[in-house]
Amino acid sequence: MDQSKIDELRQLEIAPQNHFIDGQWQTPREELEVTSPIDGKSITTIGRADTDEVNQAVAAARRAFDDGRWSRMSPAGRKKIMHRIADLIEAHALELAVLGVRDNGTEIGMAIKAEPGSAAGTFRFYAEAVDKIYGEIAPTADSNLGLIQKEPIGVVGAIIPWNFPLMIGAWKLAPALAAGNSIVLKPAEVASLSWLKLTELCAEAGLPDGVLNVVTGKGTVAGEAMGLHPEIDVLVFTGSGFVGRKLLEYSARSNLKRVYLELGGKSPNIVFDDAKNVEAAAIGAVNGIFRNSGQVCVAGSRILVQRSIKDQFLEAFVKHSEALKVGDPLDLANDVGAVTSTTQLAQNLAHVDKAKIEGASLLSGGNQINQSSGGNYMEPTVFADVKASMSLAQEEVFGPVAAILDFDDEAEAIRLANDSVYGLAAGVWTADLSRAHRMIRSIRSGVVHVNCYGGPDVTVPLTGFKQSGNGSDKSLHAMDKYTDLKTAWIQL
Questions:
Q1: How many helices and strands in the chain, by DSSP H and E?
Q2: Is 463 a member of any domain?
Q3: Does 252 score more than 90 pLDDT?
Q4: Does residue 317 fall inside a structural domain?
Q5: Which residues constitute the domain of residue 27?
Q6: Are residues 432 and 293 in the same domain?
Q7: Which of 195, 196, 368, 491 is deepest in the core (most CB within 10 A)?
Q8: Residue 262 among the catalytic residues
Q9: Backbone φ, ψ for residue 207 (5° rounding)
Q10: Which residue is catalytic, options 189, 262, 379, 396?
Q11: 222-246 pLDDT tens trace
């Protein structure tokens, strides 16, 4: 990447943003100010959708679905448009990445890969899946023919988070489009800009009017309106457990729409004394918790270390944590960017204070930094001597705070790993292949990394166990959320 091009893009003025409904940009009735976490300055406004504006978006999506402009388009036609979307994402990758960083503070080196890079790949994956998902013929008696068909469900409501809006939004939008559905999407109010640009690119690629509708604003208004709307057939969400529970309530109070939730976690990253390289495990663990200021749903925030290597691991972990350079996320020299909002930063610091009170040992960090910039920056923070009963071992911080626990043997490691209401991800560092397989079977989480942390691509599912959610993002399994099975029973 070229720093001068990044600097040029960061200077661009951003016009006030509108809703996108039925193929048209619609001026919102109310607005929200967008403040950049980089320097605390206002950069533009977005719409603050009310219930009527959500209703308009849902009505447009329903018309588009019912008249078949997308739902009954040939698979080859849908495939072609989805590949065009991927082409345009790649052509505008740096612009999308910089726009997103100005909005949510992710370091640009990570953002360029995780946001437009991932989104383009996701659209291509599901574009290729469009004409490769077959129905079935049941093994019936000769006098009958049983046909099992997969059909689009209808209108999908998607509510996406602020940490990786393009990546996670594409995980939801691309399979829903591939299946033939129409969509109403609400980005997070603190990270809407990159999705509004991508919406423009989708229209340019030829996505028919009304198939994708985007409204911005507060979850307490627009999100609730989507949850309660009787014409939304499926609702998909990534975010907090509190909001996830609300969406389930809204489904029960309205049309019993299907609700699929990815609700984060408190993921264990387990380092055994037979790990091939303790230094490499420490580096992997540092990246697993501190990238994007810890604002990653699968972050390895609970690091379990076998006592026999505890001192060696801690020395390496603290060394590499303190070597990370935190600052302006649009400066390629920095390793870690900004915390997305002042609210999130305050919550992170409150968790630090609580951990101290409960008796955890602060080894490094714990402070807000770079305050003169006006932005939201926090030191990578390392706590040792954390007990399983402490808040820091149980509550998701969603910030750059690592909790290090120790264990004696495999059985204790499994017990500690599963001592959580969450079950999204985990990591295991060991040179023993049999142990790795035992841990994979024993840990209750949707993803188990072995001798790495992070990296699974779109070919494999991301699934939450326990209170980390339900359903799958990524892979062909994600298509199940957006299709209905229909049986045709034919008497011959």
A1: 16, 25
A2: no
A3: yes
A4: yes
A5: 3-263+469-491
A6: yes
A7: 195
A8: yes
A9: -65, 125
A10: 262
A11: 999 999 999 999 999 999 999 999 9
Question: Nearest CA to 9 among 89, 70, 100?
Answer: 100
Are 425 and 358 within one domain?
yes
Our answer to whether residue 202 is catalytic in this structure is no
Task: Determine the Cα–Cα distance for residues 293 and 279; give it in Å rounded to an integer.
Answer: 21
What is the phi/psi pair of residue 66, to 5°?
-65, -35
- Do 288 and 253 lie in one domain? The reply is no
Say what the pLDDT of residue 392 is. 98
**Whether residues 161 and 274 fall in one domain:** no
Residue pLDDT, tens place only, 121-145: 999 999 999 999 999 999 999 999 9
The band of 1, judged by pLDDT with boundaries at 50, 70 and 90, is confident
Distance, C-alpha 436 to centroid of its chain: 27
Out of 53, 297, 379, 396, the active site residue is 297
pLDDT mean over 49-57: 98
How many residues are present in the chain? 492
Angle at 337 between CA 335 and CA 338, to 5 degrees: 160
Residue 368 placed within a domain = yes
The pLDDT of residue 407: 98
Beta-carbon contacts of 96 under 8 Å, excluding residues fewer than 6 positions away, are: 89, 115, 116, 166, 194, 197, 198
- With a CB cutoff of 8 Å and minimum separation 6, the contacts of 226 are 54, 58, 157, 159, 184, 186, 232, 235
Work out how many domains the chain is built from and give that number: 2
Region 466-488: mean pLDDT is 97
Identify whether residues 179 and 280 lie together within a single domain.
Answer: no
- pTM over cut 0.90: yes
Closest by CA position to 33, among listed 245, 192, 207, 199: 192
Claim to verify: residue 197 and residue 304 sit in the same structural domain: no
Q: Any idea what the CATH number is for the domain that residue 429 is in?
A: 3.40.309.10
Find tokens 């070919």 and name the residue.
459
Q: How far apart are CA 371 and CA 158, in angstroms?
A: 35
Tell me, yes or no, whether 402 and 482 share the same domain: no
User: Do 88 and 168 fall into the same domain?
Assistant: yes
Asked whether the predicted pLDDT for residue 65 surpasses 90, the reply is yes
